[in-house]
Fold each of these.
Amino acid sequence: MAYTEEELKKELETQEYEYGFVTEIDADTFSKGLSEDVVRAISKRKEEPSWMTEWRLEAYRSWKKMKEPEWSNVKYIKPDFQEISYYSAPKSKDKYESLDEVDPELLKTFEKLGISVNEQKKLAGVAVDIVVDSVSVATTFRETLSKKGIIFCSISEAIREYPDLVKKYIGSVIPRKDNFYSALNSAVFSDGSFCYIPKGVRCPMELSTYFRINQAGTGQFERTLVIADEGSYVSYLEGCTAPSRDENQLHAAVVELIALDNAEIKYSTVQNWYPGNKNGKGGVYNFVTKRGICHTNSKISWTQVETGSAVTWKYPSCILKGDNSLGEFYSIAVTNNYQQADTGTKMIHIGKNTKSTIISKGISAGKSQNSYRGLVQVNPRAENARNFSQCDSLLMGNKCGAHTFPYIEVKNNTAMVEHEASTSKIGEDQIFYCNQRGIDTEKAIALIVNGFSKEVLNNLPMEFAVEAQKLLEISLEGSVG
Amino acid sequence: MLTIDNLHVSIEGKAILNGINLNVRAGEVHAIMGPNGSGKSTLSAAIAGNESYDVVKGDILFKGENIIELAPEERAHKGIFLSFQYPIEIPGITVTNFIKTSINSNLKARGESNMPANKMLKKIREKAALLEIDSKFLSRSLNEGFSGGEKKRNEIFQMAMLEPSLSILDETDSGLDIDALKIVANGVNKLKNKSNAIIVITHYQRLLDYIIPDYVHVLHEGKIVKSGGKELAHELEEKGYDWIK
C-alpha cells in the first residue's frame, strides 16, 4: 500500500543490522582491566622496544589524571574501564603468504560481508590490509608498493622495522595528552596501520583497510599513522563493519596524518559499526580522534560516511600550518532509531593563504539525534585565509533531531569565512511523486537520500562510493513488503 | 479502459467528490473542466492512488480490474500516469537518473529485466527531441530551479518515456507561455494513439485548442454536472462557469 509517515517509522524500526553475526575464531584475549602492568604486557606482547613501552606508560599516567569529557551533545552510560579487555588477537600469529593459510572461519566472515579478500584482490588497484580484532592478518599488493618505496604495514610492524619514522611522527599531530580518549589510545593501542609515501611518489593504488570488531567485550584501540613526504600523494580508504552485540563496545581510535610540503592525502572512511537494536540497546561507542597537519602547499581531504555506532563522537580536523595549504572535510552522517552522533571538523588556519572547505550532510531518522559541531579558527598570522562551510540536515519523521553548532574564531581581518546551513524533511509529496512513477517507497527514500548526499558521495573513490550508497540504503530503508 | 463508478472522496472528513461517474475508452481524449475547488485535482489524485485522499464509496476499474485497493506504484505499473500540477523537486537526482529508475522499476514490477543503457539513451534522445528538450536539461537535478514551463515539459517527457495506457494531465497548461504550450500539446498529440487514453484536467479552454478532446465534462461541487463534445468547452469559455451553476 502507499506510504505514510507511520509506515516509514515502522519500517525503520524493524530493520536489523545486516552484518550481525559473530565469527568463532580462537582468540588470545587478555583478562579485563587496566593498569601499568596491562600496558606493559601489551607492549611486551607486541615485542616493542623500550622507548615505546615508556611512551605508552606516560600516556597511561596522563590518562589516569584525566576526566571523561562531557561537552558533547550525546548521552550514554560511561564505560567502566576496568571491565574492558585491552588486547585480543586471532590465535594464528604467523604471517600468511596466501589466502589458503588464513583461518577459513575468518574468510567466511569476509564473504558474508561481501568484502572477501578474494573480491578485494580482484579489485584492481586496491591493496588491503585487513585488521581483524586488532592484528593484521593479511596484506596484499605489498610488493608493488615496496618497489616504489612505499611502506604500508601494521603499526606494530612499523614500530619494530621503522622506529625512526614512528618515533618522529607518532603523537606529533595528536599529543598523548590531547584528550581523554587519545591518552587512553596512546596507552593501550593494539594495532592499526602505518603508511609512508616517499618524496615525490604518487601512490599508484588506493590503500585500503577494513576494520572489524570481532571479540565479545574487547575494546578496539586502533592507531593509524599516515606520512606523505614532500611532493607525494596517497589516497587511503578505511571501512568498517561489526557484529551485533548486547554489551556496548568501546572504540577509541587515533588517526594522525602528516602532509609534508606539496604533499596530498585523501582519507576516506565508511563506518558501519553495530548501531544497537531498535530500542537503543547495545551498539558501538565510537570516540575517535582524527587530525592531520598540512605543511606548505599541501592538502588533506577527509571524506566520511558514518552510518553505524550507537554513539559517534568524532571530528576529523586539519591544522593548516603551512602557507597555501588546503583542508577539506566532506561528511555524511546517518542516524536512526536511538543512534546519536556528534561529529564535524576543526579547521585551524595558521599559515598564509590557507583554504578550507566543509560540506556536512546529516540525515536523522527514528528517535536519533544528529549534531554537526565544527570549528573554523583563523589565527593572527593567517593572512587571506578562506573558509566555506555548508551544513545540511535531512529529517525523516518527527521524533528525531538535527543540531548545528558552528564555532567561528577569526583573529585576522583579511579572512573570509562563509557558513551556510539548511534543514529539510522528506515529504509525503516527494514519496507520492516517486510512487506515481512506479518507484516503491524504499527506492524513493534511497533516491532522495542519495541525491541529498551527492556532493559528498562524489568525493569518494568509485568502488567505495558504491559501497557507501549501499550502506545508506541499508541504514535507512528497512525491509518493505 | 477506465470506469469510475459513483466515486465519493473526502479529505480529512470533508467531502470533495460526491458520486463521480466516468467511462474512458482506449483512443479517447476526455477533458475535465471546472472552477477552482470543484474537485478536479482530487479526482486525478484519487485515480493515481494518493492516500491522503479517502475513497469513501465507489469503485475505480482500470482495464477491468478494481484498483481501489492498489498502492500508487502498483497503479503506475499497470499503466496509469499522472502529470502533476506541482511537480516536486529531488535535489541531487538528475532528470536522466530519475527516469531511468522509474522505467526500470516498472520493468521489474512486470518481471522484466532492466533496460540496457544504450537502448535507454536512444529512447531518451528520441523523446527529448520530440519535446524540444536540450540535453543539458537532462543532467539537471529533478525540477530543482526549473521554471514552470520546464517542469511541465519534464512531466510530458516522462510520459513519453513511460508510454502509459492512461495519462492524466492535471493543469498542464498552468504556468506555460503560448510557445511552451504548443510544444507540450504537440508532444501529447504525437503520443496519442488508438490503444491509449488521455484525461486533460484544465480550468481554461486554451489548452483544448491544441489537444482536441472527444468529450468534455464539467465538474461542479464534486459532481459531473454536464458532459458533451468539444464545443462544450467553447460554450463554457463564452458563458463562464456561472452558467453551469
Amino acid sequence: MKPVHSLFPSIGATMLALLAATSPAWGADRGKDIFLKKGCGECHTIEGPEVRLPVTERHKLKGPTLWYAGSKFQPGYLGRWLVKPQAFRGVKWGTMEKGRTPHPALPPAEAGEVARFLEGLKDPELREGVVPGWGDKLPRQVLRRARILFQKEQPCYACHMVHIRKTVYRQAVEVGGFTGPHLIDAGLRLRPDFIVALLKSPDRYAPNGRMPRYGDKAFTPLSEQDLIALAAYIATLK
Amino acid sequence: MRSLSLFAALVLLAGSAWAQEGSRPTAEQNFLWYCIQCHGPKGDGKGVNNTAKLPVTPRNLTDGRDMAQFADEDMVRTITRGGGASDLSPIMPPWGNTLSAEEIRDLVTHVRTLCKCQFDPKAKERFLKEQGKLPPQNQAPDPMKETLR
C-alpha cells in the first residue's frame, strides 16, 4: 500500500495528459509531429501558397498541397479518410494511367490527430459565408441553373466523375472522366465556400493542376451567382 | 574581388530567373499537360477521359480530312472560349484564361502538324452538310428560323 501523498504525482500527470489531449492546440501539435514523423511532408506541402511550376516540372510533385486543408475539407472528413484512404482521381498521380495512387492509412487515433492539425491550416484570404446555408435543399431556380451549368454549359463531369440522375425518377448513373478528383461524395468532403474560391482562382489553390480558370476573366462569363449555384449544387452530391 | 564575384553571381541568377519567367512552354509541352486528358498523347482522341458515357467523343486531331474544315481562327476560338463558342460540344472547356494568346497560337500550329492539314473551305461545307446544318441548294434559308436563333 503506497502512502497517499506518493499518488499525487501520478494523478497530476494523468490529469495533465487528459487536459492536454482535450486541448485543440496540443492535438494539433501532436498531429503535426505525426505528420512530419510519418513522412507526409515528402508528398504534401503545408506552407503556401504553392508556387506555379512550368508544365514540364509539374510531374515532380508527388501529391496535392495541404496548406489550406482546413478551408477545403469538411470538419471530420480527413480523420475518417486517413483511416481508410482512397485516392480521389481515377488516374495515378502525375500520370494519365488509369488506376489509383495508393495512400498510407493511419490508425484511428493518429488519423484524428493529423486531421485536427490539418483542419487548423486555413487560408486567411478565403471568404467564408459566400454560399448561403441551403444544405441539400437548394432553391428551385438555383438548382436549375446549377444543373444546366454542371451538365450542359461547362460540363464538369468531363474530368470529374459524378453520380448523376438523368431525371428525378431514374437511378443515378456514374459518369465522368478520370483526371480530376471525383465529386461523388463532394458534399461530404468539400466546403462550398472553398469550391467558389477554387473556381475563381485555381492559380491560388491548384496552380499546378489542369483545372481551367473560371470566373475571373472574359472567356468564361460565369457570374458570381453562377459560381455560388455551382458550388452549392456540388455540395449536395453525396 | 569578392564583391565582384558576388555581383557576377547575382547577375547570373537574375538572368536565369528572367529566362525562366520569359520563356513559355512549347505547344507540345502544353498539349501533353492539358489536351492529353481527352485528346490523348497522340491527339487521336483516345485520352483517358474519353469514356463511353460521354455525350461526344473527343475529336481525333490526326484526322486530316475532318480537321481541314477548321480555319486557324476557328481553332483559336475553340481553344480560347471552349467548344460551345464554335457550335461544337461544350465538353471542350475554355482555356483562354489559362493559356496566353501566344500559347494558343502555338497549339494551333501544333494541331496542324498532328493533322497534317490546312484549312479547306470545301471540307467545312461537307461537314455542315453531313451534320444537316447547311440548307439545301436553291432554297433560301428560313428567315424565321434565323430570327429565332
